[in-house]
Amino acid sequence: MITILPCSDETIQSCLRGFDIRFLNWNKHDLCVETLRIAGLNNLKELWLSWSGRNSVLYSWSCREHGLPTLNMLETVRIEAKASIESTKQYKENINKFAGRLQKSLQQSLQPGDASKEKDKSTQPGFLEVRDRTIKVVPPEDYPQLNGKGLSHRQFS
Fold first, then answer.
1. Could you list the residue range(s) of the whole structural domain that residue 136 is in?
2. DSSP conformation letters of 81-141
3. Region entry Disordered: which residue ranges (predicted)?
4. Which of 33, 52, 125, 127 has CA atoms 20 to 30 A from the CA of 73?
5. Packing angle between helix 55-62 and helix 88-107, nearest 10 degrees?
């Protein structure tokens, strides 16, 4: 049996650096947003993400300081789900909560009195521009489950 390992974050960064990429579908489970920022994907508008089903990854992706909100031009995120131990119901609930957290992170703005710092901060990597903004979340079409009840550990072997 041949095992194919995904690209390392460093490989992804070196492959993408220097290109003006607007649409990206890099097939790596749970891709870290920091990898994309380091690669300089400042104009990314649409992103396909391969999700393992881990809720912790959705929390990372929705984080205001380090997640998808730091990609200032991003408009659409398409989630592709992989098999997990979670049920279809739990998958859907996790995705819905993720979408809500993401929108909440996007709506957070500078506190009153910080407006004078806006110009200085706007040149820093990952600065969230203060504006009305949403990112459309396109959930998986199929939730890879066994009878909607989740997969057991035995079924992975």
1. 22-108+130-145
2. E---SS-HHHHHHHHHHHHHHHHHHHH--PPTT-GGGHHHHTTSTTPPP-S----EEE--S
3. 105-157
4. 52
5. 10
